[in-house]
Amino acid sequence: MSSPPLVACHECDAIYERNPIASGAKASCTRCDSELYREINSSLDKSLALYCTTFVLMLVAYSYPFLIMKTAGITEENQVFSGAWALYEFGMGELGLVVLMTSIVFPLIVVVGMMYLLLPARFGNLPLGHGLVFRIVRAIEPWSLLGVFMLGTLISVVKLQKLATITPGLGIFAFVGMLISYTAARIYFDPQVLWRLSKVKQLSSSDIEPNTSCISCHSCGLIRTSEEDFVDCPRCGAAMHHRLIDSLQRTTAFVMSAIVFLIPANIFPVMTVKTLGRGSPDTIISGVIKLMDGGLWGLALIVLVASVVVPFLKIVALCYLLLSVHRQSTWRPEDRTRLFRITEVVGAWSMVDVFLVGLLAGLVKLGLVATIEPGIGATFFAGAVILTMLAAHSFDPRLIWDRAQQTTDRSQSDSGVKADNKHSSHIQVVN
Ligand SMILES: [Zn+2]
Ligand SMILES: [Zn+2]
Fold it and tell me: What separation in Å is there between the alpha carbon of 421 and the centre of ligand 2?
């Protein structure tokens, strides 16, 4: 019987054997607790069915009315793309583009890309250019913000209740269904269903000498020994590096730029609500205060957390991680990895305020009765959120472990145990 393929932890680079586990179980890294793989029963069938469902619901959600607003005898229908279009009409095309890409274009590319990969795989083949498509999907997935868009929609409905009667359209029901099936499809998808069909052999522990240094592909996770002569991943075509190139420098540059963007984002107004021709511009903070004055405490809290607390804490966390790696800290690498994981996941939710501005501008176009105009602060804020997301994606959490690994190696050689080279593979079995 051949030995199981190797799998690398994408957060700390520990290498394991991919042993069979019970259906529904999850194998986690014993070092940093990150998920290594799951065993999903008929992953291919389930994820393919769910992506196809998502695609159909997506067509409905994007072509039917989303929200219908009625006030003072005027009815205003809004669609998913109305927000992006309204931002463009107000001369804020760049912000409209961000909303359009993250709420419509990127999710569509992910879903179509996954169907392109999974449909032929269902019949035992990998399609032409599968490596490139897989890489594109992997790169775009974090920027597909359907859940954040939905939260923005819910907030805008609550916010507008005093102003008008809001009725949900068919589009919003399809959107909720699409969000559920999209999330489920991502959970049920195991990349191994594709790679089993690939001609590129997956290394197992019997293929490599003990203490051989290994490199894993950042995109598809293929493991190669560093002795092999290659530049790009033979399976997905991504450039293979030991660590993300210039990770610290790039992350620092993105964090610094984000800090600079946050200043105008908080000084300039994000939107102006005008009722009967009157109204004053609101910054992020004054918007929160107005919500509290209006008794909408829950909403005020969500906006405060998403737009003020999260970006601030994210920048603090990234600065701390950068500094700790720069100073080659060995302190609690597993906790620092956890901090990174939270930073990466939570950051995108700050975009809710940007979606909110777009949605409100798209809905409330009632001339003299009421209008909501987006403000330049929203563009800077979107820029800051995008920059913090880029910063988190540029940070390589494995750098946290490099120093810890060096220390372990040194103590092992002190105690007479043969020391591995710097990034050796430590094969462990996970049950
Ligand atoms: Zn790990
Ligand atoms: Zn690869």
Answer: 24
Out of 3.40.630, 1.10.287, 1.20.140, 2.60.120, the CATH code matching 246-417 is 1.20.140
Residue 267 pLDDT: 95
For ligand 1, the distance from its centroid to the CA atom of residue 61, given in whole angstroms, is 39
Cβ density class 28-64: b for 16+ within 10 Å, e for less: ebebbebebbbbbeebbebbbbbbbbbbebbeebbeb
| Contact call for residues 226 and 210 (beta carbons, < 8 A) | no
- Distance of CA 400 from the midpoint of ligand 2 (Å): 23
Q: How high is the pLDDT of residue 172?
A: 94
What pLDDT sits at residue 24? Answer: 85
Q: Which ligand is nearest to the CA of 401?
A: 1
Q: Rounded to an integer, what distance in angstroms lies between the CA atom of residue 143 and that of residue 181?
A: 18
Q: For the chain, what percentages of helix, strand and coil (3-state, to nearest 5) are there?
A: 55, 15, 30
Q: What is the mean pLDDT of each run of 10 residues along the chain (431 residues)?
A: 82 87 88 89 95 97 90 82 91 94 96 98 94 96 94 89 86 96 95 91 81 85 79 89 89 97 95 84 91 87 92 95 90 91 90 91 79 92 96 93 70 38 40 38
Q: How far is the CA of 200 from the centre of ligand 1 (A)?
A: 25
Edge-first strand listing for the sheet containing 165-168? 74-78, 67-71, 165-168
- In the chain, domain spans: 246-417
11 CA distance to ligand 1 centroid (A)? 5
Ion ligand 2, residue ranges at CB < 5 A: 217, 219-220, 222, 233, 235-236, 238
Cα–ligand 1 centroid distance for 298 (angstroms)? 37
pTM over 0.85: yes
CA of 307 to the centre of ligand 1 (A): 31
Gap from CA of 15 to ligand 1 centroid (Å): 8
The alpha carbon of 293 is separated from its chain's Cα centroid by a whole number of angstroms, namely 34
